Amino acid sequence: MSITISPITGIPVIRPGDDLATHLLSAMDRSRLHLADADILVICQKVVSKAEGRIARIADITASPFAEQIAAQTTDKDPRIVEIILRETTRIVKMNRGHLIVETGPGWVCANAGVDESNSLEDGTVILLPADPDASARRLKDAVRARTDKDVAVLITDTWGRPWRDGLVDFAIGIAGIDAMLDLRGETDMNGRELHHTVMAQADALAATAGLMMRKGAGLPAVLVRGYAFKPAKGSAAPLIRPRELDLFR
Amino acid sequence: MSITISPITGIPVIRPGDDLATHLLSAMDRSRLHLADADILVICQKVVSKAEGRIARIADITASPFAEQIAAQTTDKDPRIVEIILRETTRIVKMNRGHLIVETGPGWVCANAGVDESNSLEDGTVILLPADPDASARRLKDAVRARTDKDVAVLITDTWGRPWRDGLVDFAIGIAGIDAMLDLRGETDMNGRELHHTVMAQADALAATAGLMMRKGAGLPAVLVRGYAFKPAKGSAAPLIRPRELDLFR
Q1: Residue B147 belongs to what H/E stretch?
Q2: Measuring CA to CA, which residue among A173, A190, A170 is closest to residue A236?
Q3: CATH of domain B4-54+129-244
Q4: Contact residues, chain A, for B118 at CB < 8 Å
Q5: How much is the pTM?
Q6: A54 pLDDT above the threshold of 60
Q7: What's the mean pLDDT in B192-212?
Q8: Region A56-126: CATH code
Protein backbone atom coordinates (compact mmCIF):
# COMPACT_ATOMS: atom_id res chain seq x y z
CA MET A 1 0.00 0.00 0.00
CA SER A 2 1.25 3.49 -0.87
CA ILE A 3 1.52 6.38 1.54
CA THR A 4 0.65 9.91 0.55
CA ILE A 5 2.19 13.02 2.08
CA SER A 6 0.16 16.19 1.53
CA PRO A 7 1.04 19.74 2.55
CA ILE A 8 -1.61 21.51 4.61
CA THR A 9 -1.71 24.97 3.06
CA GLY A 10 -3.47 28.10 4.24
CA ILE A 11 -2.56 27.98 7.94
CA PRO A 12 -2.35 31.60 9.13
CA VAL A 13 0.47 33.05 11.23
CA ILE A 14 0.01 31.46 14.65
CA ARG A 15 0.08 33.69 17.75
CA PRO A 16 0.22 32.92 21.47
CA GLY A 17 -3.07 31.55 22.70
CA ASP A 18 -4.24 30.47 19.24
CA ASP A 19 -6.04 27.17 19.02
CA LEU A 20 -3.91 25.08 16.69
CA ALA A 21 -6.53 22.41 16.06
CA THR A 22 -9.01 25.04 14.85
CA HIS A 23 -6.51 26.55 12.43
CA LEU A 24 -5.37 23.16 11.16
CA LEU A 25 -8.88 21.82 10.61
CA SER A 26 -10.04 25.04 8.94
CA ALA A 27 -7.08 25.01 6.59
CA MET A 28 -7.74 21.36 5.74
CA ASP A 29 -11.42 22.09 5.13
CA ARG A 30 -10.55 24.89 2.73
CA SER A 31 -8.25 22.60 0.75
CA ARG A 32 -10.77 19.74 0.91
CA LEU A 33 -8.41 17.49 2.84
CA HIS A 34 -10.70 15.43 5.05
CA LEU A 35 -9.18 13.60 7.99
CA ALA A 36 -9.52 9.84 8.29
CA ASP A 37 -8.69 7.46 11.12
CA ALA A 38 -5.00 6.52 11.19
CA ASP A 39 -3.94 9.69 9.40
CA ILE A 40 -0.75 11.17 10.82
CA LEU A 41 -0.63 14.94 11.33
CA VAL A 42 2.93 16.22 11.23
CA ILE A 43 3.42 19.75 12.49
CA CYS A 44 6.55 21.79 13.01
CA GLN A 45 7.58 22.77 16.52
CA LYS A 46 7.56 26.48 15.78
CA VAL A 47 3.82 26.87 15.42
CA VAL A 48 3.21 24.66 18.45
CA SER A 49 5.60 26.76 20.51
CA LYS A 50 4.05 30.00 19.27
CA ALA A 51 0.54 28.85 20.13
CA GLU A 52 1.81 27.86 23.58
CA GLY A 53 3.55 31.19 24.11
CA ARG A 54 7.01 29.60 24.32
CA ILE A 55 8.59 32.86 23.23
CA ALA A 56 11.35 34.82 24.95
CA ARG A 57 11.81 38.55 24.50
CA ILE A 58 15.51 39.26 24.26
CA ALA A 59 15.18 42.70 25.87
CA ASP A 60 13.78 41.04 29.01
CA ILE A 61 16.92 38.91 29.51
CA THR A 62 20.08 39.74 31.42
CA ALA A 63 23.04 37.64 30.33
CA SER A 64 24.99 35.93 33.10
CA PRO A 65 28.78 36.27 33.14
CA PHE A 66 29.06 32.70 31.79
CA ALA A 67 26.73 33.52 28.90
CA GLU A 68 28.82 36.63 28.18
CA GLN A 69 31.99 34.52 28.12
CA ILE A 70 30.51 31.92 25.79
CA ALA A 71 29.18 34.58 23.47
CA ALA A 72 32.57 36.25 23.33
CA GLN A 73 34.56 33.06 22.87
CA THR A 74 32.59 30.59 20.88
CA THR A 75 29.63 32.05 19.05
CA ASP A 76 28.56 35.10 17.12
CA LYS A 77 25.36 35.33 19.13
CA ASP A 78 23.93 38.04 21.33
CA PRO A 79 24.93 37.09 24.94
CA ARG A 80 21.27 37.31 25.92
CA ILE A 81 20.40 34.65 23.35
CA VAL A 82 23.20 32.49 24.80
CA GLU A 83 21.60 33.08 28.19
CA ILE A 84 18.21 31.91 26.87
CA ILE A 85 19.90 28.80 25.44
CA LEU A 86 21.63 28.05 28.74
CA ARG A 87 18.34 28.29 30.63
CA GLU A 88 17.01 25.48 28.36
CA THR A 89 20.19 23.43 28.79
CA THR A 90 20.94 20.64 31.27
CA ARG A 91 24.37 19.76 29.87
CA ILE A 92 26.76 21.16 27.28
CA VAL A 93 27.78 18.33 24.95
CA LYS A 94 30.14 20.32 22.72
CA MET A 95 31.10 23.96 22.59
CA ASN A 96 33.39 24.64 19.68
CA ARG A 97 33.86 26.55 16.42
CA GLY A 98 30.87 28.80 17.04
CA HIS A 99 28.56 25.90 17.84
CA LEU A 100 26.78 25.11 21.07
CA ILE A 101 25.53 21.51 21.10
CA VAL A 102 23.59 20.88 24.28
CA GLU A 103 21.29 18.46 26.03
CA THR A 104 17.87 19.80 26.96
CA GLY A 105 15.65 18.84 29.87
CA PRO A 106 13.95 15.88 28.20
CA GLY A 107 17.33 14.62 26.91
CA TRP A 108 17.37 15.90 23.33
CA VAL A 109 20.81 16.71 22.01
CA CYS A 110 20.72 19.54 19.51
CA ALA A 111 22.28 22.87 18.61
CA ASN A 112 21.29 25.88 20.73
CA ALA A 113 18.76 23.87 22.77
CA GLY A 114 16.41 24.23 19.81
CA VAL A 115 16.14 27.98 20.43
CA ASP A 116 15.24 29.50 17.10
CA GLU A 117 15.93 33.04 15.96
CA SER A 118 14.24 32.81 12.56
CA ASN A 119 10.54 33.16 11.94
CA SER A 120 9.80 34.56 15.38
CA LEU A 121 6.66 36.62 15.78
CA GLU A 122 8.50 39.89 15.64
CA ASP A 123 12.06 41.10 15.89
CA GLY A 124 13.52 40.87 19.33
CA THR A 125 12.06 37.49 20.22
CA VAL A 126 13.17 33.89 19.91
CA ILE A 127 11.11 30.72 19.99
CA LEU A 128 11.82 27.95 22.49
CA LEU A 129 10.96 24.27 22.11
CA PRO A 130 7.60 23.27 23.63
CA ALA A 131 8.04 22.51 27.33
CA ASP A 132 6.59 19.02 26.91
CA PRO A 133 6.24 18.16 23.22
CA ASP A 134 4.56 14.80 23.91
CA ALA A 135 1.87 16.62 25.89
CA SER A 136 1.51 19.15 23.07
CA ALA A 137 1.05 16.33 20.58
CA ARG A 138 -1.48 14.64 22.87
CA ARG A 139 -3.50 17.86 23.26
CA LEU A 140 -3.64 18.34 19.49
CA LYS A 141 -4.64 14.71 18.96
CA ASP A 142 -7.40 14.99 21.58
CA ALA A 143 -8.69 18.28 20.16
CA VAL A 144 -8.85 16.79 16.66
CA ARG A 145 -10.67 13.76 18.05
CA ALA A 146 -13.16 15.94 19.90
CA ARG A 147 -14.03 17.91 16.79
CA THR A 148 -13.86 15.31 14.02
CA ASP A 149 -14.24 12.00 15.86
CA LYS A 150 -11.18 10.84 13.88
CA ASP A 151 -8.42 8.96 15.64
CA VAL A 152 -5.21 10.40 14.21
CA ALA A 153 -1.58 10.31 15.27
CA VAL A 154 0.43 13.52 15.77
CA LEU A 155 4.14 14.13 15.28
CA ILE A 156 5.76 17.41 16.32
CA THR A 157 9.00 17.96 14.43
CA ASP A 158 12.04 20.17 14.47
CA THR A 159 14.78 20.70 11.89
CA TRP A 160 18.25 19.81 13.16
CA GLY A 161 21.76 19.10 11.98
CA ARG A 162 23.50 15.77 12.49
CA PRO A 163 27.05 14.69 13.26
CA TRP A 164 28.96 13.26 10.28
CA ARG A 165 26.30 14.22 7.71
CA ASP A 166 25.79 17.66 6.29
CA GLY A 167 22.43 19.34 5.79
CA LEU A 168 19.40 19.51 8.05
CA VAL A 169 16.65 16.95 8.51
CA ASP A 170 13.44 16.99 10.52
CA PHE A 171 13.18 14.82 13.61
CA ALA A 172 10.21 13.90 15.80
CA ILE A 173 10.33 15.53 19.25
CA GLY A 174 6.71 15.05 20.34
CA ILE A 175 4.49 12.08 19.56
CA ALA A 176 0.92 10.96 20.25
CA GLY A 177 -0.99 8.00 18.88
CA ILE A 178 1.88 6.06 17.31
CA ASP A 179 4.99 4.36 18.67
CA ALA A 180 8.30 6.13 18.11
CA MET A 181 9.85 2.82 17.14
CA LEU A 182 8.94 -0.01 14.80
CA ASP A 183 10.45 -3.15 16.26
CA LEU A 184 11.26 -5.64 13.51
CA ARG A 185 13.27 -7.94 15.77
CA GLY A 186 12.02 -11.46 15.53
CA GLU A 187 11.35 -11.03 11.83
CA THR A 188 13.72 -13.19 9.87
CA ASP A 189 15.71 -12.46 6.75
CA MET A 190 15.35 -14.48 3.56
CA ASN A 191 17.58 -17.18 5.02
CA GLY A 192 15.54 -17.53 8.18
CA ARG A 193 18.20 -15.67 10.16
CA GLU A 194 16.88 -13.21 12.67
CA LEU A 195 17.14 -9.55 11.60
CA HIS A 196 18.58 -8.59 14.95
CA HIS A 197 19.32 -4.95 15.74
CA THR A 198 16.54 -3.79 13.45
CA VAL A 199 14.46 -1.37 15.44
CA MET A 200 13.44 1.38 13.06
CA ALA A 201 12.92 4.92 14.35
CA GLN A 202 9.64 5.14 12.44
CA ALA A 203 8.64 8.54 13.86
CA ASP A 204 11.93 10.09 12.74
CA ALA A 205 11.67 8.36 9.37
CA LEU A 206 8.19 9.81 8.81
CA ALA A 207 9.18 13.22 10.16
CA ALA A 208 12.04 13.47 7.66
CA THR A 209 10.07 13.51 4.41
CA ALA A 210 7.13 15.31 6.01
CA GLY A 211 9.47 18.05 7.23
CA LEU A 212 11.00 18.36 3.77
CA MET A 213 7.51 19.18 2.42
CA MET A 214 7.07 21.99 4.95
CA ARG A 215 8.07 25.60 4.25
CA LYS A 216 8.11 26.99 7.75
CA GLY A 217 8.88 30.52 6.64
CA ALA A 218 6.21 30.50 3.96
CA GLY A 219 3.18 29.51 6.00
CA LEU A 220 3.36 25.77 5.39
CA PRO A 221 4.10 24.31 8.84
CA ALA A 222 2.08 21.08 8.67
CA VAL A 223 1.70 18.01 6.52
CA LEU A 224 -0.69 15.06 6.42
CA VAL A 225 0.64 11.50 6.06
CA ARG A 226 -1.95 8.98 4.94
CA GLY A 227 -1.75 5.26 4.31
CA TYR A 228 1.11 4.36 6.63
CA ALA A 229 0.14 1.14 8.38
CA PHE A 230 0.78 1.34 12.11
CA LYS A 231 -0.59 -0.04 15.32
CA PRO A 232 -2.30 2.74 17.32
CA ALA A 233 -0.40 3.34 20.56
CA LYS A 234 -0.16 5.97 23.25
CA GLY A 235 3.11 7.20 21.81
CA SER A 236 5.98 9.30 23.15
CA ALA A 237 9.18 10.67 21.66
CA ALA A 238 11.17 9.54 24.71
CA PRO A 239 12.31 6.22 23.16
CA LEU A 240 14.08 8.24 20.45
CA ILE A 241 16.48 9.59 23.04
CA ARG A 242 19.44 7.23 23.09
CA PRO A 243 20.19 6.40 26.73
CA ARG A 244 23.30 8.28 27.74
CA GLU A 245 25.10 5.12 28.87
CA LEU A 246 24.61 3.62 25.39
CA ASP A 247 25.64 6.77 23.54
CA LEU A 248 29.24 6.77 22.30
CA PHE A 249 29.10 10.43 21.30
CA ARG A 250 27.82 12.20 24.36
CA MET B 1 1.17 18.93 -4.38
CA SER B 2 1.22 15.58 -2.59
CA ILE B 3 3.94 13.02 -2.89
CA THR B 4 3.24 9.30 -3.03
CA ILE B 5 5.59 6.59 -1.82
CA SER B 6 4.83 3.15 -3.23
CA PRO B 7 6.55 -0.13 -2.42
CA ILE B 8 7.83 -2.05 -5.44
CA THR B 9 6.84 -5.61 -4.67
CA GLY B 10 7.78 -8.83 -6.42
CA ILE B 11 11.50 -8.24 -6.86
CA PRO B 12 13.16 -11.68 -6.75
CA VAL B 13 16.25 -12.53 -4.69
CA ILE B 14 19.08 -10.71 -6.45
CA ARG B 15 22.29 -12.60 -7.24
CA PRO B 16 25.71 -11.48 -8.44
CA GLY B 17 25.60 -10.46 -12.08
CA ASP B 18 21.84 -9.87 -12.09
CA ASP B 19 20.60 -6.88 -14.01
CA LEU B 20 18.84 -4.76 -11.42
CA ALA B 21 17.03 -2.53 -13.89
CA THR B 22 15.43 -5.56 -15.54
CA HIS B 23 14.20 -6.94 -12.23
CA LEU B 24 12.94 -3.55 -11.04
CA LEU B 25 11.10 -2.75 -14.26
CA SER B 26 9.57 -6.25 -14.46
CA ALA B 27 8.35 -6.04 -10.89
CA MET B 28 6.85 -2.61 -11.57
CA ASP B 29 5.16 -3.89 -14.73
CA ARG B 30 3.59 -6.76 -12.83
CA SER B 31 2.16 -4.38 -10.21
CA ARG B 32 1.13 -1.89 -12.91
CA LEU B 33 3.40 0.82 -11.57
CA HIS B 34 4.43 2.78 -14.66
CA LEU B 35 7.43 5.05 -14.42
CA ALA B 36 7.09 8.74 -15.20
CA ASP B 37 9.70 11.47 -15.62
CA ALA B 38 10.86 12.90 -12.27
CA ASP B 39 9.97 9.74 -10.38
CA ILE B 40 12.54 8.85 -7.74
CA LEU B 41 13.56 5.20 -7.45
CA VAL B 42 14.82 4.41 -3.97
CA ILE B 43 16.63 1.10 -3.61
CA CYS B 44 18.42 -0.45 -0.68
CA GLN B 45 22.15 -0.95 -0.83
CA LYS B 46 21.97 -4.68 -0.24
CA VAL B 47 20.44 -5.60 -3.57
CA VAL B 48 22.78 -3.21 -5.39
CA SER B 49 25.79 -4.77 -3.66
CA LYS B 50 24.55 -8.28 -4.37
CA ALA B 51 24.03 -7.54 -8.06
CA GLU B 52 27.55 -6.09 -8.18
CA GLY B 53 29.05 -9.08 -6.40
CA ARG B 54 30.18 -7.04 -3.38
CA ILE B 55 30.12 -10.14 -1.23
CA ALA B 56 32.89 -11.54 0.95
CA ARG B 57 33.14 -15.20 1.87
CA ILE B 58 34.20 -15.44 5.49
CA ALA B 59 36.07 -18.72 4.96
CA ASP B 60 38.33 -16.98 2.42
CA ILE B 61 39.53 -14.41 4.97
CA THR B 62 42.46 -14.62 7.36
CA ALA B 63 42.13 -12.24 10.30
CA SER B 64 45.13 -10.04 11.01
CA PRO B 65 46.46 -9.87 14.58
CA PHE B 66 44.82 -6.44 14.98
CA ALA B 67 41.45 -7.82 13.86
CA GLU B 68 41.89 -10.67 16.34
CA GLN B 69 42.58 -8.18 19.14
CA ILE B 70 39.58 -6.02 18.30
CA ALA B 71 37.32 -9.04 18.09
CA ALA B 72 38.52 -10.26 21.48
CA GLN B 73 38.29 -6.88 23.19
CA THR B 74 35.44 -4.90 21.80
CA THR B 75 32.97 -6.91 19.77
CA ASP B 76 31.25 -10.25 19.73
CA LYS B 77 32.12 -10.71 16.07
CA ASP B 78 34.07 -13.37 14.25
CA PRO B 79 37.63 -11.97 13.86
CA ARG B 80 37.38 -12.59 10.13
CA ILE B 81 34.35 -10.31 9.94
CA VAL B 82 36.33 -7.67 11.86
CA GLU B 83 39.06 -8.15 9.26
CA ILE B 84 36.55 -7.57 6.43
CA ILE B 85 35.36 -4.42 8.20
CA LEU B 86 38.91 -3.13 8.63
CA ARG B 87 39.62 -3.63 4.93
CA GLU B 88 36.71 -1.25 4.19
CA THR B 89 37.88 1.23 6.83
CA THR B 90 40.07 4.31 6.41
CA ARG B 91 39.78 5.51 10.03
CA ILE B 92 38.33 4.22 13.27
CA VAL B 93 36.11 6.93 14.76
CA LYS B 94 35.05 5.09 17.91
CA MET B 95 35.72 1.60 19.21
CA ASN B 96 33.83 0.96 22.40
CA ARG B 97 31.21 -1.18 24.13
CA GLY B 98 31.10 -3.72 21.32
CA HIS B 99 30.71 -1.09 18.63
CA LEU B 100 33.02 -0.25 15.80
CA ILE B 101 32.18 3.13 14.27
CA VAL B 102 34.44 3.80 11.31
CA GLU B 103 34.99 6.02 8.34
CA THR B 104 34.92 4.33 4.95
CA GLY B 105 36.80 5.25 1.77
CA PRO B 106 34.28 7.80 0.48
CA GLY B 107 34.01 9.38 3.97
CA TRP B 108 30.85 7.78 5.35
CA VAL B 109 30.85 7.33 9.09
CA CYS B 110 28.86 4.28 10.13
CA ALA B 111 28.97 1.12 12.21
CA ASN B 112 31.02 -1.78 10.85
CA ALA B 113 31.82 0.05 7.59
CA GLY B 114 28.33 -0.90 6.43
CA VAL B 115 29.31 -4.59 6.33
CA ASP B 116 26.10 -6.51 6.76
CA GLU B 117 25.73 -10.02 8.11
CA SER B 118 21.96 -10.32 7.67
CA ASN B 119 20.21 -11.24 4.46
CA SER B 120 23.38 -12.38 2.74
CA LEU B 121 22.99 -14.80 -0.13
CA GLU B 122 23.93 -17.80 1.94
CA ASP B 123 25.49 -18.50 5.29
CA GLY B 124 29.16 -17.74 5.47
CA THR B 125 29.05 -14.54 3.48
CA VAL B 126 28.64 -10.86 4.28
CA ILE B 127 27.62 -7.99 2.03
CA LEU B 128 29.82 -4.93 1.57
CA LEU B 129 28.70 -1.46 0.56
CA PRO B 130 28.89 -0.78 -3.20
CA ALA B 131 32.40 0.36 -4.13
CA ASP B 132 31.04 3.59 -5.66
CA PRO B 133 27.36 4.06 -4.81
CA ASP B 134 27.01 7.21 -6.93
CA ALA B 135 28.23 5.24 -9.95
CA SER B 136 25.80 2.42 -9.07
CA ALA B 137 22.94 4.92 -8.92
CA ARG B 138 24.03 6.46 -12.22
CA ARG B 139 24.16 3.04 -13.95
CA LEU B 140 20.66 2.21 -12.73
CA LYS B 141 19.34 5.60 -13.83
CA ASP B 142 20.90 5.21 -17.28
CA ALA B 143 19.61 1.65 -17.69
CA VAL B 144 16.08 2.77 -16.77
CA ARG B 145 16.36 5.64 -19.25
CA ALA B 146 17.57 3.33 -22.02
CA ARG B 147 14.63 0.98 -21.55
CA THR B 148 11.75 3.30 -20.70
CA ASP B 149 12.91 6.70 -22.00
CA LYS B 150 11.91 8.07 -18.57
CA ASP B 151 14.21 10.46 -16.77
CA VAL B 152 14.13 9.33 -13.14
CA ALA B 153 16.32 10.00 -10.13
CA VAL B 154 17.87 7.16 -8.12
CA LEU B 155 18.73 7.01 -4.42
CA ILE B 156 20.67 4.08 -2.96
CA THR B 157 20.04 3.80 0.78
CA ASP B 158 21.39 2.02 3.82
CA THR B 159 19.94 1.62 7.31
CA TRP B 160 22.15 3.08 10.03
CA GLY B 161 22.11 4.15 13.65
CA ARG B 162 22.69 7.72 14.77
CA PRO B 163 24.43 9.34 17.74
CA TRP B 164 22.08 10.73 20.39
CA ARG B 165 18.94 9.19 18.87
CA ASP B 166 17.90 5.59 19.22
CA GLY B 167 16.55 3.41 16.43
CA LEU B 168 17.69 3.05 12.84
CA VAL B 169 16.89 5.25 9.86
CA ASP B 170 17.73 4.97 6.17
CA PHE B 171 20.23 7.37 4.67
CA ALA B 172 21.18 8.09 1.06
CA ILE B 173 24.65 6.81 0.14
CA GLY B 174 24.42 6.91 -3.67
CA ILE B 175 22.56 9.47 -5.77
CA ALA B 176 21.87 10.17 -9.43
CA GLY B 177 19.55 12.70 -11.04
CA ILE B 178 18.78 14.86 -7.99
CA ASP B 179 20.85 17.08 -5.71
CA ALA B 180 21.66 15.72 -2.25
CA MET B 181 20.81 19.11 -0.78
CA LEU B 182 17.95 21.55 -1.09
CA ASP B 183 19.39 24.98 -0.48
CA LEU B 184 16.76 27.30 0.99
CA ARG B 185 19.24 30.05 1.88
CA GLY B 186 18.14 33.34 0.46
CA GLU B 187 14.51 32.48 1.14
CA THR B 188 13.16 34.75 3.83
CA ASP B 189 11.00 34.02 6.83
CA MET B 190 7.62 35.62 7.39
CA ASN B 191 9.34 38.76 8.72
CA GLY B 192 11.57 39.11 5.69
CA ARG B 193 14.54 37.84 7.69
CA GLU B 194 16.80 35.44 5.83
CA LEU B 195 16.39 31.77 6.78
CA HIS B 196 20.13 31.32 7.11
CA HIS B 197 21.62 27.90 7.82
CA THR B 198 18.70 26.19 6.12
CA VAL B 199 20.19 23.70 3.73
CA MET B 200 18.00 20.62 3.85
CA ALA B 201 19.51 17.18 3.25
CA GLN B 202 16.67 16.33 0.86
CA ALA B 203 18.13 12.99 -0.25
CA ASP B 204 18.39 11.79 3.36
CA ALA B 205 14.90 13.11 4.13
CA LEU B 206 13.43 11.17 1.20
CA ALA B 207 15.51 8.08 1.98
CA ALA B 208 14.20 7.99 5.55
CA THR B 209 10.52 7.53 4.78
CA ALA B 210 11.21 5.43 1.68
CA GLY B 211 13.45 3.12 3.72
CA LEU B 212 10.76 2.70 6.33
CA MET B 213 8.48 1.31 3.60
CA MET B 214 11.06 -1.32 2.59
CA ARG B 215 11.23 -4.79 4.10
CA LYS B 216 14.69 -5.82 3.08
CA GLY B 217 14.38 -9.32 4.50
CA ALA B 218 10.99 -9.92 2.93
CA GLY B 219 11.74 -9.16 -0.71
CA LEU B 220 10.76 -5.51 -0.67
CA PRO B 221 14.04 -3.65 -1.29
CA ALA B 222 12.79 -0.75 -3.42
CA VAL B 223 10.26 2.02 -3.33
CA LEU B 224 8.97 4.60 -5.81
CA VAL B 225 8.61 8.25 -4.78
CA ARG B 226 6.37 10.29 -7.06
CA GLY B 227 5.34 13.93 -7.00
CA TYR B 228 8.32 15.42 -5.20
CA ALA B 229 9.20 18.63 -7.02
CA PHE B 230 12.93 18.87 -7.67
CA LYS B 231 15.28 20.35 -10.20
CA PRO B 232 16.98 17.56 -12.21
CA ALA B 233 20.70 17.54 -11.48
CA LYS B 234 23.65 15.21 -11.94
CA GLY B 235 23.54 14.30 -8.27
CA SER B 236 26.03 12.75 -5.86
CA ALA B 237 25.88 11.69 -2.24
CA ALA B 238 29.24 13.35 -1.52
CA PRO B 239 27.72 16.65 -0.24
CA LEU B 240 26.03 14.62 2.53
CA ILE B 241 29.44 13.86 4.02
CA ARG B 242 30.13 16.59 6.55
CA PRO B 243 33.67 17.87 5.92
CA ARG B 244 35.89 16.53 8.69
CA GLU B 245 37.09 20.01 9.67
CA LEU B 246 33.47 21.08 10.25
CA ASP B 247 32.53 17.93 12.15
CA LEU B 248 32.54 18.28 15.94
CA PHE B 249 32.06 14.55 16.50
CA ARG B 250 34.73 12.92 14.42
Answers
A1: helix B133-148
A2: A173
A3: 3.30.1330.100
A4: 189, 193, 195-196, 198
A5: 0.94
A6: yes
A7: 87
A8: 3.90.1660.10
